[in-house]
Design a protein that fits this description.
heterodimer; A: mainly beta; four-stranded antiparallel sheet; 0% helix; B: mainly beta; six-stranded mixed sheet; globular
Chain lengths: 113, 111
């Protein structure tokens, strides 16, 4: 059974650019959530995808968008990058209805300069 | 008021000590409580979970929920250097589709 894999592991972008982060779900999971973790903070919920549709969103602007694919993998897109977007972006997969079964990937460290 | 509050530490203890990590939460309707452990440069991994109130024990770890005071705790007995990590409390909120995390407490267990 494979876990959650995220790519790339590290990324440096310039302010104003766009970025796409990718996530492969754990086998058997059908829901994907994305979290942003700033240095020294707990993860903050960005949004969740189930059946290729957004199923809940946190307090993030529309320039944060996502996709879920039929194989349950997912992408997080961020447009018009700002310096404050520098953070660790975590993907978590789960089986819908399983309250405790969130499996996190190791994250993508994004630095905006 | 934040939904979940946690003392960020850092907390440094000698090997073998009993560690107590705590969080408070704001909404008495919350039912699902979790503790995650996060090593440096890794994603969070689920350590313990409890539903509603009471205690749950797993080896050296005990999770406790006190709903009357809206307080959740994680106790680590006989702490080891390998327990050095950041511990995050989390509560399932938003109708069950999101985890709301505390700030995380950085723990260092020293030889």
């Amino acid at each position: 059974e494979t876990g959650v894999t995220q790519s790339p592991t590290h990324l440096i972008k310039t302010r104003g650019q766009q970025v796409t982060l990718r996530c492969s779900s754990q086998s058997g999971h059908n829901t994907v959530s994305w979290y942003q973790q700033a240095l020294g903070q707990g993860p903050q919920f960005i949004f969740q995808y189930y059946r290729e549709e957004e199923n809940g969103r946190g307090n993030f602007p529309p320039r944060f968008s996502g996709l879920q694919f039929p194989n349950y993998s997912s992408e997080l897109n961020v447009n018009a990058l700002e310096l404050d977007d520098s953070a660790l972006y975590l993907c978590a997969s789960s089986l819908r209805g399983s309250y405790y079964g969130y499996t996190f990937g190791s994250g993508t460290r994004l630095t905006v300069v | 008021q934040k939904e979940v509050e946690q003392d960020p530490g850092p907390l440094s203890v000698p090997e073998g000590a009993i560690v107590s990590l705590n969080c408070t939460y704001s909404n008495s309707a919350f039912q699902y409580f979790m503790w995650y452990r996060q090593y440096s440069r890794k994603g969070p991994e689920l350590l313990m979970y409890t539903y509603s109130s009471g205690n749950k024990e797993d080896g050296r770890f005990t999770a406790q929920v006190d709903k009357s005071s809206k307080y959740i705790s994680l106790f680590i007995r006989d702490s080891q250097p390998s327990d050095s990590a950041t511990y995050l409390c989390a509560i399932l909120t938003g109708g069950g589709n999101k985890l709301t995390f505390g700030t995380g407490t950085q723990l260092k267990v020293e030889l």
